Amino acid sequence: MLFNAPDTHLVPFDGRFAVDDFATAPAPDGPSKSELKAELADLVEQLHELQRVLFADGRYALLAVFQAMDAAGKDSTIRKVFSGVNPAGIRTTAFGAPSSLERSHEFLWRCVQRLPERGKIGIFNRSHYEEVLVVRVKPELLTRQRLPRVAPETIWDERLESIRNWELHLARNGVVVVKFWLHLSPEEQKRRFLRRIEQPDKNWKFVAEDLEDRRRWDVFMHAYQDMLRQTSREHAPWYAIPADWKPYTRVAVARTLVQVLSQLDLAWPGVDERQQQVLAQSRAELLAETESPAEQRNNE
Ligand code: ATP
Ligand code: MG
Question: N or C: which end of the chain has fewer CB within 10 A?
Answer without folding.
Answer: C
